[in-house]
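Annotators were shown the component list below and the corresponding predicted structure, then asked to write short factual statements about the assembly.
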Amino acid sequence: MFFKKNKSYLSQIITILLIVSIFGFFTFNAQVNMDNRGIDFGFSFLSQEASFDIQFSLIEYSGSDSYFRAYLVGLLNTLLVSVIGIFFCTIIGVIVGIARLSPNYIVEKIATFWVEFFRNIPLLLQLFFWYYAALRALPLPIDAINFNDISYLSVKGWYVPEFIWTNSSIFYSSIIAGVVSIFFIYRFAKKQREDAGKQIPALSLSLLAIITLPSIAFLVGGVSLSFDYPVLTQMSKTIYNFKGGVSIPPELMALALALSLYTSTFIAENVRAGIMGVGKGQKEAAASIGLTTSQVLKLVVLPQALRIIIPPTTNQYLNLTKNSSLAAAIAYPDLVLVFAGTAMMQTGRAIEIVSITMLTYLTISLLISGLMNWYNKKVAIKEK
Amino acid sequence: MLEPNFNLTILTQYFDRSKYLNNKKGYIKMIKSLKKFSFFLVSVALLIGLQSEAFAAKKSKTLKKTIKQDFVKCGVSQGLPGFSNADAAGNWTGVDVDVCRAVAAAVLGDSGKVKFTPLSAKERFTALISGEIDILSRNTTWTLSRDADIGLTFVGVNFYDGQGFMVRKNSGIKSVNQFKNGISACTNIGTTTELNMRDFFNSKGISYEPVAFEKADEVVAAYDSGRCDTYTTDKSGLAAQRTKMKNPDEHIVLPETISKEPLGPVVRQGDSTWEDIVRWSLNVMIEAEEYGITSANADSMTTSDNPQIKRLVGAEGELGAALGVPNDWSLNIIKQVGNYGESYKRNIADTGILPDRGPNQLWTKGGILYVAPAR
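Structure shown to annotators:
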C-alpha cells in the first residue's frame, strides 16, 4: 500500500540519487587525479595577462590585457559570425524556399539543386572549400580585384572603406526617431482600420519617415559622412598591403559563407513546408471576400505559415551558432580558437576553460531559443 | 598496515574456546568459525598483496606499465622533417623520435618497441597529463610556467633552438629591421612562438596581423599561398618546413634569432624514476658521442681501457640497476639508436635541413651540449 502510493516518489528519489552520485563520482575522480598530478583548480588565471595577440577583434584588445578580455574577444567574434550567418541564411533561405514553389520550371529546378547540393555536403568540407580553394586562389594585394577604386579583394582579405561620421550622435538619434515614428504610424493605422474602417498607407508613410528624418539631420544637423578608402602601400620590394579602410579577413568571409549557404538550405525547406502547410482553400476563401493578393499573403498565409516555420528555424539558428566553432579549423579567432585553444594552451587549465566555453555556448543557445520561443508564442494561435 | 598482535588476538579468540567442542552444536559452530577465519586470512593476504603491489607501482607506475605493455608510448609532432616525421610506410624518423627509441632500447631492449602518437601543439600536454602518452618528445620549449604550473617535468634539452622568421626571397627583406606596420605573420597556436612574436613586434613598435593555425601544415600552406608575409617559428622548424614548400629556394630564413628555445622531452610530474630513465637515456646518447662510442664500435668498446667508456657500455658498474632497467640499457641505446652525433647527422644534417650543428655541437667542439656524467 505504502509503496504503491509512494512508488512515483521513490523512483524520483532514486533517479536524483543516481544523478548526484554520477556527478559526484566524476567531480571526485577529477579532483583526486588533479591532486595526484599536482594541478590546482581555480579561475584566478582569468585576470592574468594574456600576452598573446589576436588577429581580429571587435573591442580594443592587446596582449597586455587579461585572459578574460581575450575570452570576450573570442565570444564577440563567435557572436559576430553567428549574426552574419543568421542574417544571410535567413534571406537566402526565404528566397530559395519560395523559389522551390515557383511555377517557373527553371527557377524551381535551380532552387531544388541548391538545396540538395549544399545540404548534402558536410559543412567542414564546404568550409575548407571556401577557405583553402576559393579564397586562397584570390590574387595578392598588388593584383587585387578592384571594385571601382573603392574596395579591393585579395588573398589577405576584403578591404572596404571605413565610414567616418561627424556628429554621429545626431545621425543615430535621427534613425532612432525614425524607428519610433514608424511604430506610432503602425499603431495609428491599426486604430484607424479597426475604429473607422479606413486604410492608411502605413508602409509608404514609414519609408517617408525613415528617409526624411536622417536627411534633415544631414541638411541642418551638421552631420556629414566621409570615407576612409583603403590604399595600396608598398612594404618591401614585393610585399604590398592595403592601409586604411576596414579589412574583412578571409577567415571570417569563408566561415560566414559556409555557414549561411549550408544553413540556408534547411531554412528554405522550412519555408517551403510552411507555405505548403497553408491550405489552398484558405487563399481562395480570402480572395473571395475581396482581399488583395498582398493582403492575402500578409493576413492569411504568413500568420499561419510562420507557426510552422519558426520552431524548426530556431533549431537551425542554434545549429549555425554551434557550428561556428568550426572556425578553429581555419584560424578565425572565435571562442574555441582563442579561449579553448590559445588560452588553454598557455595556461594549461583545461578543465576550467572547457567548462567556461561549454557554459558559454549553452547560454547563447538558450538565449536564442528563448527569444525564438517568445516570438513563436506571439504568432501562435490564441485560443479563446 | 595490520599489526601482528591483532592477528594473534583473533587466533586466540577462535581456538582457545574449548566450549565449542562440548556438543555437536558447538562443533558446527567451530567449523563455521574456522571457515570465517580462513576467509578472513585470505582477505588479509589479498589486502597485503595489493598493498605491496601498490607500493611498487608508486615507485614507478610508468615503468611498470611500459614493461607490461611491452612498448613505449611516445607523443611526437604531426610531421616535422628532422625531428619527427613519418615516411609513406609509417616509419618515424627524427632526433625527437630517437629519444623515444633510446628509452625503448633502455627499458625493453628493443628500439622498435615504440608506439608513436602524432599530436598538435594544442593537444600535446593534455595527452601527456592524461596518460595517453608517457613521453612527449615533440620539439617542445622548456619554460618555467610549463615546467612548474601544469603538471609537467622537462628532463633535458635535445636541441637548442631560437625563433626566427622566414620570408620570400624576392621580397627584398634581409633583416627583421625591414619589417613595416601591417605585416601579417603566420604561426601555430598554443606555442611559445605566439608569445615571443608579440614581445618582438611590441618592442619594435610594429603593428602586425597574427594568423594562427592549429596544424603546422596549415601554417605552411597559408604562408605559401601569400596569406601571410612572414612565417615564424623555431629556426629548425623553419628550415625543416622549407623543404616541404612548393619551391624551397624561393624562401629565406632571416639571420636574427628573437628568442631562446631549448627543446626537449617532457614527462608527467610525480614519477621521478621514469623521469630519470628518460633523462639518462638522452644523456647517454650525448655522452657516447663525447667518448667516441658509435653504434658500429659499441660492442668492441666493452673491452676499452677507459673506465668511463666501460661504464657507458655497461661493462662496468651497475648504472642500469639504479634506474631500474637492465644493465645493458646504455649499450642497447648506443647500438640500436646511435649516439647524438649519429642521430643528428642521419636526421638533420644529411637531409639538408641544418647541415651546421651550431650550438648543438659538443662543448668540447665549441657547442653548448654538456651533460652530467653517467657514472
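Statements collected:
1. The mean pLDDT of chain A is 89.
2. Residues 2-44 of chain A form one domain.
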